[in-house]
SCP domain-containing protein
Amino acid sequence: PQPTYVAAPEPEKEEPATTQEEAPAATQPSSDSGSGSSNLDADQQKALDLHNEARKAVGNEPLSWDDSLASGAQEWADHLAQLGSLEHSQGEDGENLYMGSGSNPYSAAVEAFLSEKSQYNGEAISGSNYMSFGHYTQCVWKTTTKVGMAVAKDSSGASWVVARYQKPGNMIGDKPY
């Protein structure tokens, strides 16, 4: 089946536009090096590496995996799997959401987020322009330092992925790099 995306909500003037209603999501706890953590499984590590490769490509520092962000993401992923719908949590963290199937949901989600790069042309975030690239820009946002991700499976076996980011990105009037 095709992955399901949640569309990005409208950003507010002083609040981060951190939720997206039709896009993937991913976040996880931090490591000291920013390059990985010994407690991550292979797919989680690949998801972190994909984030950091994309960030390096635009000159931004690597993210660290954060267990606290991942824990909160797990609670929300469990909720979404029961709900059967991609809805943002409206919390203070940056957040990307994804639903799909397959054996590597973490990396599949990040690949989907990063696939929006082709839609981003370097412009500042406005209240209406980031709907097609907001997942990508959250992944590479310059002031974001931590990610935590979680997956929950629903009764049909679909994976619901939540990625949480600190500090949140997609700030109105700013650029990711």
The radius of gyration is 14 Å. The first helix runs from residue 42 to 57. The first strand starts at residue 4 and ends at 7. Residues 1-36 have pLDDT under 50 and may be disordered.
